[in-house]
Design a protein that fits this description.
Elements lengths: L7 H8 L5 E5 L6 E6 L3 H16 L7 H17 L1 H12 L3 H22 L18 E9 L3 E4 L7 H13 L3 E4 L5 H13 L7 E3 L5 H9 L5 E5 L2 H10 L5 E5 L5 E4 L5 H13 L11 E5 H16 L19 H16 L3 E4 L12 E4 L6 H4 L6 E7 L2 H8 L4 E2 L1 E5 L3 H10 L4 E4 L15 E2 L2 E2 L4 H7 L1 E9 L5
Parallel strand pairs: 4-5, 4-7, 5-6, 7-8, 9-10, 9-15, 10-13, 12-13, 15-16
Antiparallel strand pairs: 1-2, 3-19, 8-18, 11-12, 14-17
Helix pairs in contact: 2-8, 3-5, 3-6, 3-7, 4-5, 4-7, 5-6, 6-16, 10-11
């Protein structure tokens, strides 16, 4: 039986795929900021088909001049939307506006660094003519994109992490599929739109929000993925690495429990501002946040009380306010976890010098703990909250040993006015980078950024990521005309 003609639009609508929706809420006031369609298994497969077909036909590849032009136009668009992007990032991620503006500036500079990298993207030829077998030959070395990149990002830097993962992929000519953090996808989608508006064909950069973790795993572990870039928890990152298809390369960036060592001659006027920033910046939700501070016993109490005074003076609250210095934790579950960890430390003997309480709107008071147990969670695991721990020591080598005692290692720091002491400690700390008279969270976007042991695999930083997303192809030319 045929249906009345006026029913056909309704039937067509019912036959369309019903897509799940994901709301994005402000971590501060729970306001709904946006709603996005999620991707099911079919959507993910189509994204992979599109990216793989694009890369498989070299006629589709974008030339280096094309890529440079796209990135430069993207920079112009980012600059024109600077304040709007910074405010949006603060709303969805909870990072105070003053710091979100800094992140936006870094995001632009990261894309500029991608352009600079393309202008110096060379490799060294392999020498020939140095023995009988290599006579009459010379080599040409070319860099080519590795293939389809899948980037899984984290919530804590929703602008600059996308620049660090997607920017190098675009620069090196890799089709990229990016999965932003569930809590902060708005910045990612806005940046991807900017790349498209700058002239990047849409199929070269696809942003997806998988329905669930099972669908996300299918994306990551597909055999068409050449490179997997992951920023997030170690548990998830190492699990996904174990499931990668044969031949898929990867870079993992996880967290640490960053140690700081203060020698007895440390200048506290330098130390206090650095530790306050490094420990409480973005409510401690940074993979290299200051967490464990080992202080010579002669100055430990003074340092602890001064740092607690600095923490009490920090303005905690609405991340979109220009006065706020510490915003909320990303979700209420994290607030509950941090609260329980601090309480456990106090129950096990730590002295609570300040903070130690949940505030309104998922905020947590900046907290300083004195001499917590070495077995408490705040001493052994990444807090990822505004909590720092102070441990007095009498023997420098013992402090170094305790700083190195965990199965994670990322960035560390030492404060001393004596160059020999500073170098002695730097030489013995287990870390990929050691800061002298600077906090552990210092970073510029062109420096190497790498977790050791369980803290990660591979090296981040724009130039280093670009290297990992390329292969070096050697062409050997044989000719009797070559002497």
């Amino acid at each position: 039986m045929s249906l009345p003609q006026h029913f056909s639009p309704l039937i067509a609508e019912l036959q369309q795929k019903v897509r799940a929706q994901r709301e994005v809420k402000s971590p501060y006031d729970e306001q709904v900021l946006a709603c996005f369609d999620t991707s099911d298994t079919d959507d993910i497969n189509q994204a992979l088909v599109t990216a793989h077909r694009l890369f498989a036909d070299k006629k589709n590849w974008l030339s280096v001049p094309q890529r440079i032009a796209i990135l430069e136009r993207a920079i112009e668009l980012m600059q024109s939307q600077f304040e709007d992007l910074a405010i949006s990032s603060a709303q969805e991620g909870g990072k105070p506006l003053v710091d979100s503006r800094v992140e936006m500036a870094r995001c632009i500079d990261s894309i500029r660094t991608c352009v600079d990298g393309l202008r110096d993207n060379t490799c060294h030829p392999v020498p020939m003519g140095i023995n009988a077998a290599s006579q009459h030959r010379f080599t040409i070395m070319n860099k080519e994109p590795i293939g389809v990149v899948v980037a899984v990002s984290a919530f804590n830097h929703p602008l600059n992490l996308i620049a660090h993962q997607v920017g190098p992929a675009i620069a090196t000519g890799c089709p990229v599929i990016v999965k932003p953090a569930e809590d902060t996808p708005i910045s990612c989608f806005r940046l991807v739109e900017i790349f498209h508006r700058a002239g990047l064909p849409v199929e070269w950069c696809q942003a997806v929000l998988p329905d669930n973790h099972h669908v996300a795993e299918k994306l990551v572990t597909d055999h068409r993925v050449a490179f997997f870039s992951f920023i997030g928890s170690g548990k998830v990152g190492w699990y996904l690495r174990s499931k990668l298809a044969p031949g898929t390369r990867c870079a993992l960036e996880h967290g640490g429990v960053a140690p700081v060592i203060l020698a007895k001659d440390a200048d506290l006027d330098i130390v206090i501002p650095g530790l306050a920033k490094g420990g409480f910046y973005h409510a401690g939700q940074v993979c290299v946040s200051v967490q464990r501070i080992f202080v010579h016993e002669s100055i430990a109490r003074t340092l602890a009380e001064r740092l607690a005074d600095a923490a009490k003076k920090l303005t905690v609250g609405d991340p979109t306010s220009g006065d706020t210095e510490v915003g909320p934790l990303i979700r209420n579950g994290e607030l509950i976890r941090v609260t329980s960890w601090v309480q456990e430390a106090v129950d096990m003997g730590a002295e609570l010098l300040c903070g130690g309480q949940a505030l309104l709107n998922n905020c947590y008071a900046p907290t300083v703990l004195y001499s917590p147990s070495k077995e408490s969670k705040v001493s052994t695991s990444e807090v990822f909250g505004p909590v720092v721990c102070i441990y007095p020591f009498s023997d420098l080598d013992q402090a170094i040993s305790e700083a190195n005692s965990l199965d994670v290692a990322f960035q560390a720091s030492v404060y001393s006015q004596d160059i020999d002491t500073a170098m002695y400690v730097s030489d013995r700390l287990t870390a990929s980078a050691v800061m002298i008279n600077e906090h552990t969270a210092f970073r510029v976007d062109w420096m190497p950024f790498a977790g050791l042991m369980q803290s990660g695999l591979g090296t981040g930083g724009i130039p280093h990521t670009m290297e990992e997303m390329q292969i070096e192809k050697m062409i050997v030319i044989t000719s009797k005309g070559i002497s």
